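Supplementary Methods, section 5.1.

A reviewer requested that the exact input to the structure prediction be made available. We therefore reproduce it here, unchanged from the version used in the analyses.
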Amino acid sequence: MAQTYDLTKGKTTPIILKFFFPMLLTNMLQQIYTIADTMIVGKGLGDDPLAAVGNMSSLTFFIIGFSMGLTNGFSVSIAQAYGAKDTEGLRKSVASSIMLSGVITVLLTAVSMIFLNPVLVLLQTSEVIMADSLLYGYIIFGGLVTTIAYNLCASILRALGDSKTPFIAIVFSTIFNIVFNWVSIFVLHMGVEGPAAVTILSQVISAAICYAKLRKIEAIRLTKAHFRENFRICLELLKNGIPMAIMNSITAVGCMMVQYFVNGMGVAFTSAYSACSKYINLFMQPACTAGITMSSFTSQNFGAKKYGRIAEGFKVCMVIALITYIIFGSVMVFFPRFLASMMLNGEQQIELAMGYLVRSGVMIFAVDFLFVVRSGCQGLGKPLFPMISGIVEMVMRVAVIVMFTQKIGFNTTAYAEMAAWAGALLINATAFGIFLRGYLRSDSKDEKKHNIFFRGRLKNA
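The structure derived from this sequence is encoded cell-by-cell as follows.
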C-alpha cells in the first residue's frame, strides 16, 4: 500500500530537504528538457523556428499558468485537510479537485484554440514566424488535457508529502522528450510540430505514472459518494485556486506585453529574448522548488496548527533561495557568452542575450526570495496578496517597457523583470510577515492560558 508523508512531524531541516531534493530534480529536469528542445530546434531548424517557439512562451504560460495556479491552489486545501487528519474532508477535496479540473480543461482548451491566431497578431508576431507559431500553439493547446492531468496529479501527491513520484515521472518523460525531439527533427525532418507533439506525449507519460501512484493511496480512496454534495468544498478550493490562477495569468499578461515590444524590434531580438527566458526559468528552479516546498510544508502545518514549525521551515527555505542566488546569479554574470552561444547562432543575438543575462543575474535574488514568501502566503490560505502582487508585477513590467524602450532598447526587458520581481517581493514579504506573526502571537497566548490553567489546577490540588 502506498504511503503518504506527514510534514508536521520530525526535525524541520531534514524533512524539508527530503521533500525538496526530489522535487528540485523534477523541476530541473523539466527545464532541462525545455532547454534541450530549444537547443535542438535552434541548431536543427535555425533561429527563426526558435523564435516561433519562443514567441509562444508567454501565451503558453498564460493558459498553462492559469491551470497550474488552480491545481496548486487546490493542493493547499488538500494539504490542510491532510495535516488536520480530516480523512473525509481530504477525500472530498480530491474528488472536487478532479471535477473542477475537468470543467476547466474543456474551457481553457476551447478558449486557447479559438483565440490563438488573433492574440498572435496582437503580439506583433512577424509573418516570418507566424505559421510555425500557430502550428506549435495548436498542438500544445490541443493537448492541454495531458498537461492539466499531470499538474493535478503531481499537486495532490505533493500535498500529501510525496515529491518522489513526480520526480520519477519526469525522469521517464524527459528521456522520452529529448530522444524523440532529436529523432523528430534530425531523423524524420519534421518542423516545430515534432517537438510540440513530443511534449504532449511526454506529459501523457508523466500523468500516467503519477495517477498510478495515487490509485494506491488508501487515504484518498474515492467512492461515488465523495463526488456528491461538494458545493461548499468546491467554493473553498476555488477560493484558493482562482487567486493563484489569476496571479499566474496576470503575470503572463505582463510577459506578453514585453513580448509585444520585443517582437516589434525584429526576429533577432525575439530569438535572444527566447533564449534568455529559458535560462531565467532554469536558474530560478531551485528557489521555485523551495517555494513549492514552503507551500506544502506550510499548508500541512497550518492544518495541524503548528505555527512555530512554519517559521522554522521558512528559515530553511530562505537559505535555499540565498544559495540558489549565489550560484546561478554568478553563472549569469560571469559566463553570459557561453550561455548565449549554447542556444543562438548569430552574433547579434548572442550580444543581445549577454546584456540581458548579466543584468538579470545581479537582481535574480528578488525572484528567488519571492517564490518562498509568496508560497508561504498561499500555504497560510491567504491567496489574495499573491494575486495583488501579480497585478503589481504586470504594472511594473509594462510601465518600465513603455517608458524606457525607446531610450534604452532591448536591455529594458531585463530592467522590467527586475522591477516586477522587486515590487512583488515587497508585497508578499510584508503580508507573510504580518500573518505569521499574528498566528505565532495567538499560539503563544493559547499556550500561556494552557499553562495558567494547569498551574491553577495543581495549586488547588
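The chain has a mean pLDDT of 85. These observations are discussed further in the main text.
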